[in-house]
Amino acid sequence: MDFVYANRGGNYQGEQFDMVFGPVANDTIYRTFIAYEEGILTKEETIARLKDHLPGGGMNMDDKTNFVVYCIEEYKAAKGLDGKGVIDLFNRYCVIDYIRDYYEALHATGRQYIVDDISMYIEARQPFMA
Questions:
Q1: Contact 35, 69 (CB under 8 A)
Q2: Which of 35, 55, 60, 94 could be stapled to 41 by a disulfide with Cβ–Cβ 3.0 to 4.6 Å?
């Protein structure tokens, strides 16, 4: 886990390898790592979810967590922020709880609608949370 995390961030300082064999990282594995990198999942939760992806098993990232990661990534790209900046903003204004609470309505919309809705939600909360 530490090797993959450091490698993804370009920070790996250990033994250098020409090739590393392992399972292909599909979208679910990618989102699991993003959830870890953004502080949504702990290291232990991440490892447990990755173990579910062993051959013969299915990845069981819950739909809401998967959608929260999607929203973070889309908001980050739309606003030109880094992951830590989005997580800090989302934590300050309880956006992750909002996304989870309104998952049924939000997940049926498009990317731009989601980004705009989150922006409006944050703007509406700013006067009360400053």
A1: yes
A2: 35
Q: Where do we find the tokens 């033994």?
A: 15
Task: Report pLDDT for 43.
Answer: 87
Distances (CA, A) of 1 to 43, 49, 65, 116: 8, 12, 20, 35
Is the full-model pTM beyond 0.70? no
Residue found under tokens 């450091």: 6
- Mean pLDDT of successive 10-residue segments in the chain (130 residues)? 70 68 61 81 83 55 82 94 89 92 91 96 86
Quickly tell me which residue has 């949504």 as its tokens: 40
Q: What is the largest CA-CA distance in the chain?
A: 54
At residue 105, the 3 state secondary structure works out as helix
